[in-house]
């Protein structure tokens, strides 16, 4: 009990951290001296320096400080040279795969309205049935002892789930055509509903991938939007005079940034890069 008492554990961790810091500091000093020898080629000066312990400590500390400063300054520039204001990072394939993965997950979880809606009497609108949803998830492997069951139980207690269901019901009642620039979730869910395709994983996976990667379908609309916004932010924050109505451009950018999952993030990335400059 003494060995695992909180105070004893913290004391041991503190000692281990102090030893690690001391070893790391010694390794940095040793490495700096080695590279200093290699670059200067003055072995005699190096030997005289090592004979003077105090001077050596001061030099090593200064070098370590310079090394730390250079590391700090370079860390601020991480990604700066790789970031292109007009095109962003060259990770379009990764973005598409992440979009597909999240689409499959949420469609298998919430795509089928029948999983969480019940029509109590004929001719009346369906209502939310949370016990039915949890029973369905349990039958699909999310047992009460699983982490997913705990996550969903808390999710159902909040207002997000109720708001989501209301929006889905309003979408179905309106009978409006799903636009081409709609989210991937809405497009695939509408495709399955119209064609009466089951929302099982074996059916959702190919549908999501086909729709997300087909060039004739809106799989890349957000990427094009990102590129135009990056270019606009770059022009607005440039040292050169903006060619156009600056106030109108800022107002439009503000509206675009309401799409906070991608456009706002990309806008802030360009702004942070500009601030570093």
Description:
It is a single chain. The chain has 277 residues and is an all-alpha fold. The protein contains twelve helices and two strands, in the order ααααββαααααααα. The protein has helices spanning 6-40, 43-51, 53-76, 92-110, 130-139, 147-157, 159-174, 184-194, 201-213, 221-236, 246-256, 263-276, and strands at residues 117-118, 127-128. Strands 1-2 form a two-stranded antiparallel ribbon. The two termini are 55 Å apart.
Task: Provide the residue-averaged pLDDT.
Answer: 75
Radius of gyration: 29 Å
Alpha-carbon distance between the termini? Answer: 55 Å
Strand composition percent: under 5%
Major sheet strand order: 1-2
State the helical fraction: 55-70%
The gross shape turns out to be extended
Element-by-element helix/strand order: HHHHEEHHHHHHHH
Largest sheet: 2 strands, antiparallel
Q: Which structural class should the secondary elements be placed in?
A: mainly alpha
- Tell me how many strands there are: 2
Tell me the number of helical segments per DSSP (H or I, 4 or more residues long): 12
Low-confidence stretches: 1-6, 53-57, 71-87
Task: Tag the structure with descriptive keywords.
277 residues; 2 strands; 12 helices; extended; single chain
What's the quick description here?
Helix content is 68%, strand content 1%. It is an all-alpha fold.
Summarize the topology.
Elements (H helix, E strand, L loop, with lengths): L5 H35 L2 H9 L1 H24 L15 H19 L6 E2 L8 E2 L1 H10 L7 H11 L1 H16 L9 H11 L6 H13 L7 H16 L9 H11 L6 H14 L1
Antiparallel strand pairs: 1-2
Helix pairs in contact: 1-3, 4-8, 4-9, 5-6, 8-9, 10-11, 10-12
